[in-house]
From TrEMBL, chains A, B:
Organism field: Motilimonas pumila
Identification of the protein by name: Saccharopine dehydrogenase family protein
Gene3D superfamilies named among the record's database cross-references: Dihydrodipicolinate Reductase, domain 2, NAD(P)-binding Rossmann-like Domain
InterPro entries from the UniProt entry: CANSDH, NAD(P)-bd_dom_sf, Sacchrp_dh-like_C, Sacchrp_dh_NADP-bd
All residue ranges annotated as the Saccharopine dehydrogenase NADP binding domain in the record: 3-144
Pfam families: Sacchrp_dh_C, Sacchrp_dh_NADP
Length: 402, 402
């Protein structure tokens, strides 16, 4: 058995640790990235934390440009993995899927290929480039699992579970993501500042009564009393799973909400007002400079935040509807602690919560429970074995009846 | 008679208009700048507003690099002005003073040569480079008038006037500068953003009981009920006139205060927190970039703000002490209206309030009232003719007893 992981950022870091913890199932692991040093750093961290379960299977690094389909094909043919886990940035999804198709290798990722804010790449079209591979994956006789992180991922499985067991009829699905952690910096982003700031200023899209509603960022807010982390303000935002849930889970309204503190939004608003979040270049002393690249250079490297991170994340799916003729309102959620995550895998909870579901889904694939031929979003697959397995991989979950 | 004006920024713009309004006294005017087009724009504006009093005296433009002493000397020798008015940025003061010394030409400026925030250029040393010319100016038989804007300038004259007429003993001199105007932009600076942001984040220096106290920016605040513009928060800040007042006007405490709205300070704090106000370069994709240059490129050009500016400035000197054995507290001040300034000279009140005092002082020089040989800060000269003349040049003033 063998797994090829492509990508060595924060999520890739934890995926590799978790893969190593289960390498009795996965076999040999190859971690590939444009920058091979990042892979070697992860391998050193796995050794340091003693996270490699069995020693007879190898963990190796490889250099690959994930935009380059022939290079990907060559690497896959050399390694012959049973599964490619895509832990790269979203814009490489389509290239890796094509390479998997050409080599007849199964595929798994954790986020959608589009940027969700440029015209033609917004929520209603979010999965178009990847769903275009449905026939190809069937022809190739391989499995593709899309959006197997936390959000998208576990939140979508929660919706499928609620649809299967808890509700006869669903009025609303509200996915809610709150990071109540503290990295101790005045201002920092938890992943690439450029991607993050573009995403946050994009219009939100939510699904209602069969059609898409588009609203400017931060104009729809609600305050929700979360388990453990308490009352938090969350804002309607464009996110991958709103598109796939609208496709696969019947509900009258589907929306994604992200928690932002007043302090965070103040930083965001000032930066936007002065033009620092613009995707357009400005001329600085004769040189065209992208303001967001300057911001990225100024802010702390997101990977540097993990060691000092305290507090918890709470991400879940709030469903309202009816069961057996009675009104029901239930929040299915996970709580993840930044410090505990760091203790185990030397990374913070945001990467941890994305990586554990990917490994849960990969294990189900190896156990032949999530391995039908074809291309699937996780909410199309049976939620029961997933939610039964995930706690043993590192993430608990619970249902809070409201 | 002839005047050479060096500098064609915002203050230079209004100085030229005011010079033209009094060219029966000043004679021929030459406006010189590194960028001659800026001079020609001012000349066109003077014509548009019909601000040239008599037509027999010329108004011409010239190109000069104000850092280049031989070039300055050549220009002065060609024009043979009775007075050089320095309306350039502060860092050219010393070069222009040297050229005036070499050509035996009298000199006038509106701000100090140091940046007030770099080590060795702070308030206690602010006038060292210029006061070093005292002997030279005496030897050359010329007059030098330093700091003849509003602050420094009129506020220093107010202190001299109060010392002469209103107080036997002065406990405190608080210079206070509030711009209660609105330029209609989300965020903008009223002059060069780079200079402005460096100045605002520097430590404040105030003078107390014969020694200098240094405090971080925005740590000393007071709320003052200003005439016309009402209650405003002002913050202790490094400023030129604190140094010269400490030299020439006896007082127990001398301090400068600048008004900042909560909104302005919020922008400032966010920009500082993310590192955008740092004077040190950052590496952006392999290129070293100065964050403040990026900010300058992003923000509106300060010269573009004048047409839409509304509201008023209030700048003055608050003195507390004793007269005839009684406690006294008096605020000497001016109110200036942005729209009225624009109507008259196509610029806003901040440039207007700096330029009118410079022209008032220049007229006193031509009237042989402020023309003794030697180098003087304005508070060393007789305040009475200055305050008698200034209202007719464009700025009223009043005393508010508290």
């Amino acid at each position: 058995m063998a797994v090829l992981q492509i990508g060595a950022g924060g999520v890739g870091w934890v995926i590799a640790h978790k893969c190593a913890q289960h390498n009795d199932v996965f076999g040999d692991l190859t971690i590939a990235s444009r920058n091979i040093e990042k892979c070697d750093k992860i391998i050193a961290s796995i050794a340091k934390r003693d996270n490699q379960k069995v020693s007879q299977h190898t963990i190796e690094s490889a250099q690959v440009d994930a935009d380059d389909i022939p290079a990907l094909v060559a690497l896959i043919e050399q390694i012959k993995p049973d599964l490619v886990i895509n832990a790269g940035p979203p814009w490489v999804n389509v290239a890796i899927m094509e390479a998997c198709y050409q080599t007849q290798t199964s595929y798994l990722d954790t986020s959608v290929a589009t940027d969700l804010c440029s015209p033609g790449q917004q929520v209603p079209e979010a999965y178009d480039p990847q769903w275009a591979f449905r026939e190809k994956f069937k022809q190739a006789g391989i499995t593709g699992i899309l959006g197997a992180g936390f959000d998208p991922g576990v939140v979508s499985v929660f919706a499928a579970y609620a649809h299967k067991h808890l509700f006869d009829e669903i009025d609303s699905i509200d996915v809610m993501d709150v990071n109540a952690g503290d990295h101790g910096k005045k201002f920092a982003t938890n992943f690439d500042p450029e991607t993050n700031m573009l995403e946050i200023q994009g219009d939100s899209f939510y699904y209602e009564q069969g059609s898409w509603k588009q609203v400017p960022c931060h104009t729809r807010m609600l305050e929700f009393d979360f388990p453990v982390v308490g009352k938090q303000k969350v804002y309607s935002m464009a996110h991958d799973e709103v598109r796939s849930l609208a496709e696969f889970i019947p509900a009258k309204r589907i929306e994604f909400w992200m928690g932002f503190s007043d302090k965070y939004l103040n930083y965001f608003n000032v930066m936007r007002d002065i033009g620092l979040l613009s995707p357009d270049p400005v001329n600085v002393d004769g040189v065209d400079i992208h303001p967001l690249r300057v911001l990225k250079a100024l802010l702390p490297d997101p990977t540097s935040l993990a060691p000092g991170y305290t507090g918890k994340t709470c991400i879940g799916t709030w469903l309202q509807g009816r069961k057996d003729g009675e009104k029901r309102s239930a929040f299915l959620y996970n709580i993840c602690d930044h410090e505990e995550a760091y203790q185990e895998v030397e990374h913070q909870a945001i990467s941890y919560t994305t990586a554990v579901p990917a490994i849960t889904a990969a294990l189900l694939y190896f156990q032949n429970k999530w391995s039908d031929v074809g291309l699937y979003n996780v909410e199309q697959l049976d939620p029961d074995p997933f939610l039964a397995l995930m706690p043993s991989i590192g993430l608990d979950w619970d249902v809070h009846e409201l």
